[in-house]
Design goal:
Blueprint: E1 4-7, H1 13-17, E2 24-28, E3 31-35, H2 40-60, E4 65-75, E5 78-86
Antiparallel strand pairs: 1-3, 2-3, 4-5
Length: about 90
């Protein structure tokens, strides 16, 4: 997957959260980058993983599975929309 640098400035999560278009973005080292939509293969694998992950989590009663898009802030200014999150 290739990403495209959108604007040269130090982005923070609050800036990222104010974006209101339909593009997919990530904040990497304070830079806003635009990522392309996932390919068909990615979507197929994601669907298979979703089924297996939800089944496992439910069977073992260990939480709830959330599916994309869901922002994960690893450490400011890193912000990535994640595919899955178990809480």
């Amino acid at each position: 997957m290739t990403v495209q640098l959108v604007e040269k400035k130090k982005w923070q999560y609050k800036d990222y959260a104010r974006l209101d278009d339909e593009n997919r973005y990530e904040v990497i080292e304070g830079e806003l980058v635009m990522a392309p939509s996932p390919a068909t293969r990615h979507q197929f694998i994601s669907g298979e993983l979703d089924f297996k992950l939800r089944d496992f989590v439910k069977k073992h009663q260990i939480g709830t599975v959330f599916h994309a898009p869901l922002d994960v802030i690893l450490s400011p200014p890193q912000c990535f929309p994640t595919e899955y999150f178990v809480h």
